[in-house]
Specification:
This protein is of the alpha+beta class. It has 13 helices and 14 strands. Helices cover 30% and strands 16% of the residues. The strands form 4 sheets. A 7-stranded antiparallel sheet has the order 1-2-4-3-14-13-12, sandwiched between helices. Strands 5-7-6 form a 3-stranded antiparallel sheet. Helix 2 (79-92) runs parallel beside helix 5, helix 2 (79-92) crosses helix 6 and helix 2 packs antiparallel against helix 12. The two termini are 24 Å apart.
């Protein structure tokens, strides 16, 4: 990287290094602090396995200490990409059959209409158990064994495989327990052993106490009238116990600023990392499945990881059109859908990754060999990306010579 930035903005200092080819990404990152109320954030890109953008800036809280190069934060559902990767590693090694019944690994799951669920359905949000009904005990989401039992006993919301509905929190225990049963190791340990430490990235599903002082405070989104008027919010506030309403309930049961949450193992929601961690995790997946002597998956597994597995015109939880690969989001263009706010993520057709609540994002694009990570502590409204994250994605694709996203995907 041939360029450096050390610049004071309206919201704090922005620092880092970058390849001059990606100056537009730097400009968008700075603009987020100058015009879009960014508080603290980092952004990293790799191209052909080489880091071409490494930026950080702002503060760890409003009025807090400056964001450092190694500052971490909770990335919410961007964690799902890490959890899915563990399942695919096991599949690639012949330890987990994605086409097998869940009950081959986890017999207790086979009740309440879930008997026919296949492993792949837990990854593409069609397994039929997006949430658990009924009250969850205090700090229940931090009690792994308790939640595994709750999810196994939960009756299906629909016949597995017949529709898609985002498994926002419950995926932590459907996919997480399959990783546990197939590998003999709990998800957090497996991810650390097989992904994070081999790649040398700061990324945990269950962070050690030693990194607590590096974790930035998350700042909740401020609801505004357009967001409150959306179909999603109106359904979440209604009386019926729908998947949408339960999503809102579940989200409020995860306190992203509590050390107990940081230490817990919630593979769908509480990963602790930064932009380097996200981009670093996806970098091998953008380069054939291996990088720097670390092999994650082979070509066949990688192709399956990026292929659409479940698409819906009306996701049972999110109430917008969605497109999912096995554990990953694909480009979703809902810019023209009425009564939605920040409900799109525009990538290329080849790309796959995951958005986190408030606007974080990590993805791999095997076609142009790009990996991307963006994390922030001021959460935005909406279901998917807001303008801060999408501006960075747009700048990255523009720098690579892509000409348009009018079709719902970035095209070269």
């Amino acid at each position: 990287m041939d360029q450096h930035i050390d610049r004071e903005t309206a919201a704090g200092r922005v620092c880092g290094r970058y390849d001059s080819r990606f100056g537009a990404v730097v400009a968008a990152f700075v603009d987020n602090f100058e015009r879009r109320d960014e508080v603290g954030a980092s952004c990293a890109l790799t191209l052909e396995g080489r880091t071409v953008v490494d930026l950080w800036g702002g503060h760890t809280a409003r009025g807090g200490t400056p964001w450092q190069a190694d500052t971490l934060c909770t990335v919410f559902s961007s964690t799902k990409g890490a959890m899915a990767l563990c399942a695919h590693l096991l599949a690639d090694r012949g330890q987990l059959d994605l086409d097998a019944p869940v009950t081959d690994y986890w017999p207790e799951f086979g009740q309440g209409g879930k008997e026919a669920a296949r492993v792949a359905m837990t990854l593409d949000h069609s397994a039929g158990v997006p949430h658990v009904r009924g009250k969850v005990k205090a700090d229940g989401f931090y009690d792994y064994d308790y939640m595994v039992e709750r999810v196994a006993a939960e009756p299906a919301f629909w016949e597995p495989g017949t529709r898609g509905g985002y498994h926002a929190i419950s995926m932590a225990w459907t996919v997480g327990e399959l990783v546990h049963r197939a590998s003999g190791r709990r998800l957090g340990r497996y991810f650390d052993d097989e992904v994070a430490r081999p790649l040398g990235i700061d990324f945990w599903i269950g962070a050690p106490a030693a990194v607590e002082s590096r974790i930035a405070s998350m700042i909740a989104a401020e609801p505004d009238e357009p967001w409150l008027a959306t179909r999603f919010v109106q359904a979440a506030l209604a009386a019926a116990e729908t998947p949408t309403k339960l999503f809102m309930r579940d989200f409020l049961l995860v306190d992203a600023n509590a050390p107990a949450c940081h230490r817990a193992e919630i593979g769908s929601a509480n990963g602790i990392t930064n932009a380097r961690g996200l981009a670093g995790m996806y970098a091998p997946l953008a380069n054939g499945g291996s990088l720097g002597g670390v092999r994650l998956v082979g070509a066949d597994t990688l192709a399956r990881m990026g292929r659409v597995s479940m698409a819906s015109h009306d996701d049972a939880t999110l109430l917008v059109p969605t497109r999912f690969a096995l554990g990953y989001m694909k480009s979703m263009d809902n810019r023209r859908v009425p009564n939605v706010v920040n409900s799109s993520v525009i990538l290329s057709e080849a790309a796959f990754g995951h958005v986190g609540a408030g606007g974080s994002l990590g993805f791999a694009d095997p076609e142009c060999r790009l990996s991307f990570g963006y994390v922030m502590n001021r959460m935005g409204t909406g279901i998917l990306l807001n303008d801060r994250g999408q501006a960075l994605v747009d700048a990255a694709y523009t720098a690579l010579g892509h000409r348009s996203n009018a079709a719902g995907v970035w095209m070269a």
